[in-house]
Amino acid sequence: MDKLGESLEQLFTLCGRKFSIKCVCLIALQLISRIQELHNHGWLHRDVKPDNFLIGDGPKSGTAGSQIYMIDFGLGKRWIENSSHISFKTEKRLIGLLKTNKKKGTPRYASINTHSGYEQSRRDDLESLGYMLVYFVRGSLPWQGLKGDKEKKYQKIGDIKKKTELNKLCKGFPDEFRQYLASCRELAFTAQPAYDEYKQYFKNVLKHLGYDPDNPQDNVFDWQDETKLHVLGGMTLPNLNGLVANGVNGVSVTLHTANHANTNHNGSSHMLLQQIQSMDNKNNNHTVHNNNRTNIKI
Predict the structure, then answer these.
(1) What is the set of active-site residues?
(2) Whether pLDDT at 173 is above 80
(3) Is the CATH code 1.10.510.10 the one for domain 7-243?
(4) Buried/exposed 55-74: b ≥16 CB within 10 Å, e otherwise
(5) How far apart are the C-alpha atoms of 84 and 71, rounded to whole Å?
(6) 8 A C-beta contact, residue 22 and residue 87
(7) Is 131 in contact with 109 (CB distance < 8 Å)?
(8) pLDDT tens, 240-256?
(9) Does 198 have pLDDT greater than 70?
């Protein structure tokens, strides 16, 4: 595994807490692919948020800055067991079961079904991504900044989310964002998401803006454009060497990087596959060494 750089939340702040439509579409294309890869291996993430996606380590203007990685599988869960989809359940609490009070995701980006207490499936990771993309375009979400204790605040977030029409939530930017969220919300619990169709929504937006999504020269993110960086007085972004990415059921993956490793276009998917394999590995004392000179202690 590679040493990683800043999170999307940190980059969002670096760019003045608003990304361009082009940048958000480029993010969407990569993250839909990351989520699809995770789902293809039978896992749900269940905590999709800007802090859990990082770019590679190295100059932002280079390849490292254009690759986005998924981290933190601490709330991950298998959606398929014994070749069958997990069962639909109700009365699941967003902040956990009464006895364990174990966290079940971030309320700001949680799907409506999660707020309603339904068991999560693939549709919920994708709906959470939709709210994250809207957050990047708008700069905030209507249900941010609510007051009250956790239970009441989470209830208010869910109520506002349910009442806010997608036309209003996505007002002022391309209709493909609304179409994406509407498609995710319409999915049945066991439905196979149309990942390629979702990616096509954002490719269409890029083409309408005059960009070719298949042309590397057009795939420049806002944090790679010096004219869009926001000057932060005295702020320094933390060094993530030694990053801990929580695994599943108490398993943790700690990255100790001895040397910076070069990132390639397949690096994000390769790293994700390694994370998935570590979640499936039941040997808690196993140590892996790879060609990137990174030790992964599970």
Answers:
(1) 47
(2) yes
(3) yes
(4) bbbbebeeebbbbbbbbbbb
(5) 26
(6) no
(7) yes
(8) 443 434 333 333 333 33
(9) yes
